[in-house]
Amino acid sequence: MRTRRAATLADVGREAGVSAMAASAVLNGARTSSRISDATRARVLEAADRLRYRPNATARGLVSQRMNTLGVVAMHQDNALNQYFLELFNGVIHGAAAAGQTTTVFSIGDWNEAPRRITEFCDGRIDGLIMLAPLLGPDAAEWLPEHTPLVSVHGNHELKGVVDLQADEEAGAFEMVRTMLAMGHRRILHIGGPQSAHGALRRAQGYLRAHAAAGVKAAPDHLVHAGYDTESGRLALESWLQRHRGEPLPQAVFGANDAVALGCMDTLHARGVRVPEDVSVAGFDNTLLARVARLATVQQPLAEMGRRAVEILVARVDARLRDRPWQGPNKVVFPTEVVPGPTLAPPSPVSRPIH
Amino acid sequence: MRTRRAATLADVGREAGVSAMAASAVLNGARTSSRISDATRARVLEAADRLRYRPNATARGLVSQRMNTLGVVAMHQDNALNQYFLELFNGVIHGAAAAGQTTTVFSIGDWNEAPRRITEFCDGRIDGLIMLAPLLGPDAAEWLPEHTPLVSVHGNHELKGVVDLQADEEAGAFEMVRTMLAMGHRRILHIGGPQSAHGALRRAQGYLRAHAAAGVKAAPDHLVHAGYDTESGRLALESWLQRHRGEPLPQAVFGANDAVALGCMDTLHARGVRVPEDVSVAGFDNTLLARVARLATVQQPLAEMGRRAVEILVARVDARLRDRPWQGPNKVVFPTEVVPGPTLAPPSPVSRPIH
DNA sequence: TTGAAAGCGCTAACAA
DNA sequence: TTGTTAGCGCTTTCAA
After folding, report:
1. HSE on the CB side for A294, CA within 13 Å?
2. pLDDT tens-digit profile of A259-293?
3. Chain A contact probe: residue of B92, B103, B116, B125 with most A CBs at under 10 A
4. In chain B, what is the straight-line distance between the N-terminal and C-terminal CA atoms, in Å?
């Protein structure tokens, strides 16, 4: 019995000799006024089972104005989503499962595509959207879809109508650099993230504030900005070292994130510089990368942030469906924490020059 | 103007003073018999722009029987999807974007939930489903949804109606172990994956065939089975070493996959055993884990497999919509390849005992 | 060139 | 207790 389409309520009703509504009442627990006689119920159930009836989510969604599906949008680089995404996404999946939602992912190569792509995406197939690390200007409020509740993680700007989840990156960077300074490091190089990302700027601010708090002057050329990926880290450190040939090596390198820090370790390794004997290295995020490489890093509770993003988004979807305004906070900040590791140790008393 | 719902075709039509069909013809390029006058077209476009009209995907899906959305189901462990998933998923996302599809993910904690969860999931919200490393018995053919095209990656059984993508794991394991034997290794321990996973069995077969081909007898206790995750690898090797106290260390450990191999490296590290000086280690999959840890491994083209899975699935969805049978292959096998790395080196002439 | 009507599969009113 | 009717937003005949 190879039919192209799945059985519908009408089919079940016909098979059971009742109307489609009766079948609906039995199968999908619609709260129509009254109940169904046991005989009818049994016939319907039997017919549904025989026809392998499954309610059609699209039709339901059209009626109920809800698909029980959340969207996630993230940026990919070189056609690949990164570890940061995976950690957050694990939390999202977990939270979505707990809330009975499914999750639809789409990725964009550049946030400049966002106005078009996000608008296309918010076309009824998802009830709400989570934006991961969106690089959107303040003008985004103008084009962001009005009818889809939005939550961002590590948003760049506070946008009207978008609930944003942040980690306290400034404090995390501060603590990490404070730790380095307390160990005795003085020449700490920070390979920061893109200047277009406010999070990267906050990390750099933490770096500077730690120096100020310790009364140590940070050399201006010890703070540079690059990308957020491994290759950027590799190249940024390599070119920095070439520019500073003959000068003493930095005592520590603080990467914008774990991927960048690993890129830096590659560069050091390729030059025969030992970590941590010659140079200490630390990252940021505490992704799996850091755990595998035993990299000192700053923990952000990414999985938890993903879960919370879902919770808040579902609450907003519920509220919208009942025409209630969103009562919750517009911003949530999560704590960060230094994670020590064998890549971070006190500086060596003698310093090698760069060649 | 805060309305709860987005503008519909009817709204646009009303605003432009034409029928909803005219608006549909203009905006959604419906191929209704004739064309629209330029004046009407302009009015409709203007109204749509003013109302920020977006076609509703759910309504379209109901009519066209297609949501342009593909499903992906994978298993999570400890509430987390793993690297294997991420590599494949990157390919899926890439392929889906190229085919104009979005991707809906759901994860299950155990493949025993699959009959219920997959059935629920295939309810019209997705046009087709990709199953990643499904552990399904041959009976699955009975309950798998009839009306949703299915593709599996690393399927366990050939299932009627399911197109399966495999990598040649047996050959990959064979080549890796052949390489080890050629280097002079004789005591090669294989920490295999779960015996319920046929892929794990094929890797073990490759291990055995390489020994046979080299005329080397593999000690039976040098092939054990455990889980596919890091912790399993760690524990499996630790307990193996405890069971073999006093005997010489294995010269090489071949993990069921990269995660297991890293767990083995943890165990060796904790015991002060050096890699590769005392023991060589290799993994399988060539995930990011291996690349970060510079682990010797066997490459499977996971991203490409994800892309191909999408291509095939979309072709099947197209075919079904036109009531055409699927003409393509029911199985595709991808090549594997040994990736060398500094964790794999010739054995040391002296062998330390296990303590 | 345009509009009216029907229907995708479902649910929610109301009537019988 | 059950069936009829209408409608979610869209597309597709078919008639004007």
Report:
1. 12
2. 999 999 999 999 999 999 999 999 999 999 999 99
3. B125
4. 76
Question: Which residue of chain A comes nearest to B101, CA vs CA?
Answer: A106
Contacts with A58 from chain B: Cβ below 8 Å: 58, 61-62, 67, 124-125
Arithmetic mean of pLDDT, A56-70: 94
Distance CA B265, CA B279 (A): 9
Which residue, among B28, B73, B104, B120, would best test binding to A if mutated, counting the most A CBs under 10 Å from its CB? B104
Whether the model pTM is above 0.85:
yes
**Chain A residues with beta carbon closer than 8 angstroms to that of B270:** none
CB count, 10 Å around CB of B274?
A: 11
pLDDT in tens, B127-144: 999 999 999 999 999 999
Q: Output the CA–CA distances (angstroms, integers) from residue B42 to A218, B14, B47, in the order listed.
A: 61, 14, 9
Q: Is the pLDDT of residue B348 over 50?
A: yes
Nearest to A111 by CA among A147, A142, A73: A73
List the single residue in A58, A83, A292 with the smallest CB-CB distance to B293.
A292
pLDDT tens, residue by residue, B181-198? 999 999 999 999 999 999
Amino acid at A192: G
Q: Give the closest-approach CA distance of A123 to chain B in angstroms.
A: 5
For residue B223, the one-letter residue type is L
B275 burial (CB, 10 Å; 0-12 / 13-18 / 19+) is: buried
> Could you say which nucleotides of strand C lie within 7 A of any protein CB atom?
1-5, 7-15
Q: Is the dihedral of CA B147, B151, B152, B155 positive or negative?
A: positive
Answer yes or no: do B93 and A104 touch at CB < 8 A. no
The whole-angstrom separation of Cα B227 and Cα B81 is 15
Q: Give the pLDDT mean for B156-175.
A: 97
Residues 6+ apart with CB under 8 A from B343: B261, B265, B275, B276, B280, B281, B282, B293, B294, B295, B296
**Beta-sheet strands, E only, within B150-267:** 150-153, 162-167, 188-192, 223-225, 252-255
Widest distance between CA atoms in chain A: 91
